[in-house]
Amino acid sequence: MADEIFILIPGRTSKQGCGISEGKFLENYQRETSRLQVASEDMERLGLSEGDKVKVTGEHGQIEIEVFGARPGDLPPGLLFMAYGDLSCQLMGSDTHGTGMPTSKGLDVRLEITHP
Amino acid sequence: MATDIIDATTGANQEGASQEIKIIEDATCTFCGCVCDDITLKVEDNHITEAKRACVLGKAWFLNHAIDDRPSCLIEGQPAALEEGYDRAARILCEARYPLLYGLSDSPCEAQRIAVSIGDWVGANIDSTSSVCHGPSGMAFQSVGEVTATLGEVANRGDLIIFWGANPAESHPRHFTRYSLMPKGLFVPNGRKDRTCVVVDVRKTKTTKTADLFLQIKPRKDFEALWTLRALAQNVELDPDRVEEETGIPLATWQTLMDKMKAARYGVIFFGMGLTMTRGKHCNTEALLGLTRDMNAHTRFIAKPNRGHGNVTGADNVISWRTGYPFGVNHARGYPRFNPGEYTATDTLARREADAGLIIASDPMANFTQAAREHLATIPYIALDPKETPTTRQATVAFTVATYGINTPGTVYRMDDVPIPLRPAFDSPHPSDEQVLREIENRVKKILNIRA
Questions:
Q1: What is the pTM of this model?
Q2: Which CATH number applies to B73-131+310-447?
Q3: CATH number of B135-305: 3.40.50.2000, 3.40.50.720, 3.40.1650.10, 3.40.228.10?
Q4: In this complex, do A21 and B344 lie within 8 Å of one another by their Cβ atoms?
Q5: Predicted complex ipTM
């Protein structure tokens, strides 16, 4: 599992957007930006259950985060999704390739189960 | 118990008693780039209790911006007088050798204008949240051009609506009903029935549920997918196996989409950060804008970025009026220079070049890369925000400001560059962005002996 490459897509969600207005230090925002969505096939294949913690390691950083399964068909196997926030930013690199924009989506990462 | 009802739009005042209730008609929501200006607000005792017609994001915006019970100014975390804060802020900026002025996208144009002046006086890098949003699209506009329209035109004419790398169902919830899919327009009198909706994305989202045709492409293959369509637009023969291998979609499906695009009377592509934040960035957007241009050989087609913050489009406009460039502008030599990747915020911070900052209505401490955040934490900076954020917590000088659109008037630009006035609901004891920035500018000019 640690050698398998997944592609991480951080993005916006309604809950994350509402959480910005409610307050970034409050439960809703913190909760929404601290969960990793995994394809249902990958959850089953890797023996993951909702609430398990995984270590996500990218080229530029490492985080520990809870997982939850996507509804069947919503995410293709090999793809991960999480709401933008502090944790997703820890995986972004600072090279903007002459644009000002760090590569923030489509990040290669590895997963390692830490707290099943 | 009777109630004192004041209709703010008519001034009508009915008999009542204990608490004041105000109704604000046609209030403007500034949470996202849709800038919906048809919201009816109910205000009770300086608190918005109802926001009719607002979406889930708009309701959260309006209902959670009561008066923040924090000091208007904090210096190094301690409450301070505003005058002290203005003095300290001006000194920080004037003593810096390579200051960064960043944010602006949740601030009205009137404040943005003063901010750019400050940046000019102190020779700062001026950058907005565009650089980590649709900045790459701005670069693509410069290299390809933009076939564009207002959202009103889309509502009245668009019969093929494509969402590419965008999820407005979550990021711009009223996009469909106000502008793109549902409106019954002059040339689409039956609304949704007269429109075809296509979604291109790497995953299923709430937006894909609205699609008549959903193309789930391989991650990081937008560029290849867009060039496939560019080839089909010009009847170039393609290898079906190669196309499917690269994009994850059979060539026949791409051909079906191209047939729909050519048959449309008025095609629209709304694109999101699926393009600009993914490897390729401005090259992805250039491909999309090139495709849009190509399609005009067959029919009318336009493309629009789905802009995020309430006045990020205003920031692009104001910085362009004042400097000639939309973001990532350097004033160190006394005149503006534009170079994304060099003068943009992430770069100047991550390379540890910026030695002071003025952060307006944005939260780089929550949204920037780790290297950029670590450097920002080491330099003196000023932050303006209505709420406490990771950025205000670590600021040398933090101003709690009134919320634009809720407490202060002004002008914002909708995502289609249409200016919209703000109709505030109630006063705030905190100063506005405009007031804070004007006070800082006055002090900067005094320190630098500028008499203009």
A1: 0.94
A2: 3.40.50.740
A3: 3.40.228.10
A4: no
A5: 0.94
